[in-house]
Specification:
This protein is α+β, with helices and mostly antiparallel strands. The protein is 17% helix and 33% strand.
């Protein structure tokens, strides 16, 4: 297509190639989608640019194949936690900023169970995985590199077990949490009773009793804090 000035518009490939390193291995998908990069090349009608089906946007509805090193891949994993009827939140971070968020599957059960999660399309790059769940301490895996293949964290790291009993959410499982669980307002109560703190139901069975106390007070959890790997 030729505009009024008589100079042909560049093709999508020519536009990308003319941009510094845009078609090379030195740029990441996140950088391509960074604010202003595609706006500067193609303009913006108010909607953010996206990468769909392995394609980069082009001019006049044309698209350009995404370079192989920029194609997104799946990242999966498995956690082990109490109260499987509630999900855990999984985040992939870069420089402390959440880039992707997923939640684990849930089960209509109680006790300690495995829960899986999937990120269906993660751009290549280096990430930190952060797992959080109510009444559990956080679990962090540093230096996860997504390259040109799908990643199964269960195969490389095994099942990631969260520590349970952090009722007050301060990052530690200790006397403060024990005092909350064992208080007259919560102990031997149903989560449906008035004034009860439902986070004290650590195993997710609907009651706050000896079973929850045993979880909090176990050697695996008591006086423990956040888990960091890598």
């Amino acid at each position: 297509m030729i505009p009024n000035g008589g100079t042909p518009f560049p093709t999508p490939a020519e536009t990308y190639n003319a941009h510094d390193n845009l078609n090379g291995a030195d740029i990441t998908a996140a950088e391509i989608l960074a604010d202003g990069t595609l706006d500067g090349l193609f303009g913006n009608d108010g909607d953010p640019w996206t990468v769909e089906d392995g394609k980069l946007p082009g001019l006049f509805g044309e698209t350009v194949d995404m370079p192989e090193h920029l194609l997104p891949h799946t990242l999966t994993g498995t956690i082990r936690a109490y109260a499987p009827n509630t999900p855990a939140t999984i985040q992939l971070l870069q420089n402390g900023k959440s880039i992707y968020t997923a939640t684990t599957e849930t089960h209509p059960a109680y006790g300690q169970q495995n829960q899986s999660f999937t990120f269906p399309a993660v751009a290549p790059g280096d990430y930190t995985l952060l797992i959080t769940k109510t009444a559990h301490t956080s679990f962090t895996v540093q230096h996860i590199t997504v390259g040109t293949e799908n990643i199964d964290l269960t195969a490389s790291l095994g099942v990631m077990t969260l520590l349970c009993g952090d009722i007050n959410g301060d990052g530690m499982i200790n006397d403060s949490d024990l005092a909350i669980l064992w208080s007259a307002a919560n102990y031997n109560k149903s989560v449906n009773d008035a004034g009860v703190n439902p986070l004290c139901d650590l195993n997710g069975d609907g009651m706050i009793n000896d079973s929850d106390l045993a979880i909090l007070w176990s050697a695996a959890n008591y006086n423990k804090g956040a888990v960091v790997i890598g």
